[in-house]
Design goal:
The structure holds 2 protein chains of 2 kinds. Chain A is mostly helical. Helix content of chain A is 41%, strand content 8%. The chains are: A mainly alpha, B alpha/beta. The structure holds guanosine-5'-diphosphate and magnesium ion. Chain B: This is ATP/GTP-binding protein.
Amino acid sequence: MNSDGPHWDGGGPERLYVITGGRSGSSAKTTLDLVTLIVARSAPRPGMQPEQAAIVRICQRPLSVAEISAHLSLPVSVVTVLLSDLIADNRVFSRPPVPPAKLPDIALIEAVIDGLQKL
Amino acid sequence: MDFRSSESPGSVEAAGPRSEDVLPETAAAAVKVVIVGGFGVGKTTLVGSVSEIRPLTTEETMTQAGVGVDDTAGVERKSTTTVAMDFGRISINDELVLYLFGTPGQERFWFLWRGLFEGALGAVVLVDTRRLEVSFDVIGRLEERSVPFVVAVNSFPDAPSYPLDELRGALDLPASVPIVECDARLRTSSRDVLMALMRYLQGLAVATTEAS
Ligand SMILES: Nc1nc2c(ncn2[C@@H]2O[C@H](COP(=O)(O)OP(=O)(O)O)[C@@H](O)[C@H]2O)c(=O)[nH]1
Ligand SMILES: [Mg+2]
């Protein structure tokens, strides 16, 4: 990382490094799936890191990790690090997807069939 | 890499979802289906035709150690490649949301999105009959990972048309795996592909329940 301070203009790895504080966030992020739904607990607070404030702002209603990544133009790997901190700080909470161990689940599949029929 | 945001520190101008794209507060859980296939096979088209939101893109960066070594600094060069994945969304009901991810056929890209297939209901292998060979690998990988899938043959006007049982033979597909024709540009046709996958999964779920 450059000692002059953050390079916010760039889109390169340096920017991502700055946003995550250089962490890979390997601990908590394993519990976050691409389709884990994230919901903010409150409005963004002044002084929050810009990316985290943006997440809190767009997650006033449930939004998947993948959608947050797309709306922020940040890789999922970076978003999960930011989210881990936000969860630890009680700024947002997560609604996990249906756990793999429960699949295939007949009731779930039938619900999806009903939903698709209405398309 | 090409990041759209280049704002000053202090604000990140993510617009977020349009007001009509906002999920209800009751959205409790999501499931995913992965659309796999070679470049240009119609993944983005299929996702876009059934999605309730305009398809979104998420990007990951793949870093590879470069072949060359920087002579002056003695630092190994690294090359980065940005790989994009398109996805869309279908609200199944007030509580359940289905996400569709379109991912390239090459397995090395799948690892960029950790857990892409983990917990997925299943997959759709999109096949272009002009380039059948691309699909062999994909089908093999899905079988290895025990990801249930159906095969959808996209009908391009200049593509050779084979009877489906001939294609089944060419792709070495077990008789149990459904194979359907589709036009990814049509909402109903794409919906029917997803429906074929769900009917197949329904059969598997019933079989699993009866076996236990
Ligand atoms: N005729 C025909 N063209 C299609 C179909 N699906 C996709 N295409 C076209 O094929 C091109 C590549 O599709 P795209 O969805 O971008 O492929 P991807 O690389 O797999 O995401 C686009 O120009 C589509 O309009 C189809 O079912 N029939
Ligand atoms: Mg595409």
